[in-house]
Amino acid sequence: MFVTMNGKKFLIIISTIIVLIVAVFVFNGNNATTPTSSKSWGLSFPESGKLPVGNATPEYLKKYNAYYSGNVEEKKVYLTFDAGYEAGYTEKILEALKKQNVSATFFIVGTYIRDNPDLVKKMVDGGHIVGNHTQSHPDMSKMSTLEDFKKQICPVEEKYKELIGKEMPKFYRPPQGVFSEMNLEMAQGMGYKTIFWSVAYVDWYKDDQPSKESAFNTLLPRIHPGAIILLHSTSKTNSEILEEFITKVKDAGYTFGTLDELK
Fold first, then answer.
1. Which helix (H) or strand (E) holds 230?
2. Which of 128, 133, 224, 232 is catalytic?
3. Which carries the bigger pLDDT value, residue 37 or residue 213?
4. CB neighbours (10 Å) of residue 58?
5. Does the pLDDT value for residue 232 go beyond 70?
6. 134-154 burial, b if ≥16 CB within 10 A, otherwise e?
7. Catalytic one among 82, 133, 203, 224?
8. Cα angle value 114/119/123 (rounded, 5°)
9. How do residues 146-185 score in pLDDT, each as one tens digit?
């Protein structure tokens, strides 16, 4: 059977098809990445106290043993710190964690182990996880071969084992959150869980630290069930607010878990 139509109707149908095709590509682009593409981890917060929208979905990430949140039905959060260098605040952070009986994860670079072995030992002795943040904090999406990828991961593992006498826990955080699907596959193949985050704020500028008030005003409304919280141990503000921050989160009915609980 043949259906006749005028030129105007034909153009409307063709335009509709084009819009649908574009929408599909936009949706896929916002929820996934391709083996050769590079993405910087990003979040939007449409609703306070709820899981934010990432530029990859939890379902997509889970295929590669990667996470940016835990169970969103459970009022448990996970505290993590990135440590590219030592700014003199880690001791105070460790003291606050001990007082609050909270275990955290410290993602450290290889030079941190070399320069601060005593602090790394304190992290481990304090019951904290020490994760892999690469040897020199590069853009890992540019590592196009497994050999290049391992050159950033394995030296950190080796330094950790030399210092602690045990294998490094298999948790990896991409520097600056830059990743590609190939990176996720490589990390997974090496037995790693790739850890992004669902709560963070601008705390890494040494000479432009946020006030206590602005830190709380940004962080607390973003806390949600399953939150993976990213803070930097180089932040003076974080060292000053941490004990009170943990108290406020606990008072809101949350408990603190560890990354090895993620499934």
1. strand 228-232
2. 232
3. 213
4. 16
5. yes
6. bbebbebbebeeeeebeebbe
7. 82
8. 120
9. 999 999 999 999 999 999 999 999 999 999 999 999 999 9
pLDDT score, position 196: 98
The encoded tokens of residue 180 equal 């590609």
Q: Which of 123, 45, 59 is nearest to 86 (CA)?
A: 123
CB 193 within 8 A of CB 263: no
Q: C-alpha angle 181/32/218, rounded to 5°?
A: 105
State how far the Cα of 170 lies from the Cα of 117, in Å rounded to an integer.
19
In which element (H, E) is residue 245 found? helix 236-251
Helical pair 236-251 and 212-219, crossing angle rounded to 10 deg: 50
DSSP code per residue over 105-134:
EEEE-HHHHHH-HHHHHHHHHTT-EEEE--
Strands 39-40 and 178-179: antiparallel
End-to-end Cα spacing for the chain:
54
Task: Assess whether 137 carries a catalytic annotation.
Answer: no
Total length of the chain: 263
- Tell me whether residue 133 is one of the annotated catalytic residues: no
Q: How far apart are CA 69 and CA 213, in angstroms?
A: 25
Q: Does 18 have pLDDT greater than 50?
A: no
As a whole number of angstroms, the distance between CA 183 and CA 119 comes to: 29
Structure pTM? Answer: 0.86
**Spatial contact of 107 and 82, defined as CB atoms under 8 Å apart:** yes
Contact 70, 228 (CB under 8 A): yes
Dist CA 252 CA 241 (whole Å): 16
pLDDT tier, 37 (very low <50, low <70, confident <90, very high otherwise): confident
